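General statements about sequence and structure are easier to judge against a single worked case. For one protein, we set the task of working out the structure tokens from the amino acid sequence alone. This step matters because it turns folding into a mapping between discrete strings. The amino acid sequence and the backbone structure tokens for this protein are reproduced below.
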Amino acid sequence: MTAVHRVLVVGGGLAGSATAIRLAEAGVDVDLVELRPEPTALGSGITLQGNALRELDGLGVWAAARERGYPFDVTGIRAPDPLGSVVAEVPDARTGGPGYPAAMGMARPELARILHERAVATGVACRFGTTFTGLDQDAEGVDVTFADGSTGRYDLVVGADGVRSQTRRALGIPLETRPVGMGIWRAFGPRPASVTRTDLYYGGPSFIAGYCPTGADSLYAYIVEPAQDRSTLTPEQQLATMIELSEAYHGPWDEIRKTLTDPSRVNYTWFETHVLDAPWNRGRVVLVGDAAHTCPPTIAQGGAQALEDAAVLSELLLTHDTVGPPLWEAFHSRRVPRAKAVVDASNQLCQWQLDRVRGDIPGLMRSIAVLVGEPS
């Protein structure tokens, strides 16, 4: 017997899609609503660590993801000198276990499509371009009103609707999402043959300049600078700004820079952070993924933690008889300390750079690798 028979998932990103897939595969009736008009993802690329790849395997999409992504096992560190000299080659921890590469780059829209296809195949009823307008819960379930006027009753509502979660607001949960002090330029484009892994350039006019292959013919490149208001720039000015910042970096960057020609493939955002203390649920409504915790991508664990939220929540819903305190105690004990440790470590790496302090980066990265190397 399972704790739920009918579930609403709000949000079709990593956490929402993964939760929906796992529950539907086990026979739960799952509805998923997503405010965006189609199953695509914003942004350019994503780096998935081994523990994220392990979760993709559990969702039945590892083979498809591997075919469309670009796996690698080493991160390069380069100098901001005229040659882009390699300073170090650091083997990455295989946090997913020996059966998976240490990391893999993917185009975000590709990953979104793979997960959507899997959700549909498992029987998830997906509705795009809409969301809920009301939640009214009692001890036995949640009555939901949708934007089109339709209604439904569910055993559980999962709020997986991102950093500025509507579900979180509807529950009246106060949570400050604060800027870290860094902004990131990202661009998506073709992969030069010289790019076969993530390389990071520290120093120069920006905090970090890097890139990650996302497929046989694609990559995303990024530059991290002090956060500033770039909202008044036109798309063409944004492109020109990223090109100008990149001119301090060489090696493969000299090839990448020549491909930066399309303003529509450049975007700029600030690093932001928050983490919600337990409980993440209010009765029969629970928050997962960025709705509960978000952090800068400095250790590339945001996607992995969202997928882990989905795995643990689904496991507990399928192995408990009721939605009650024992289930929530187990969920919070397994997820809150782990997610908080990742958020804190990601923020610490940012703060060291902002303060121009040489912190124990290898030690910090090693401690997180050990933590996430064990399944949540």
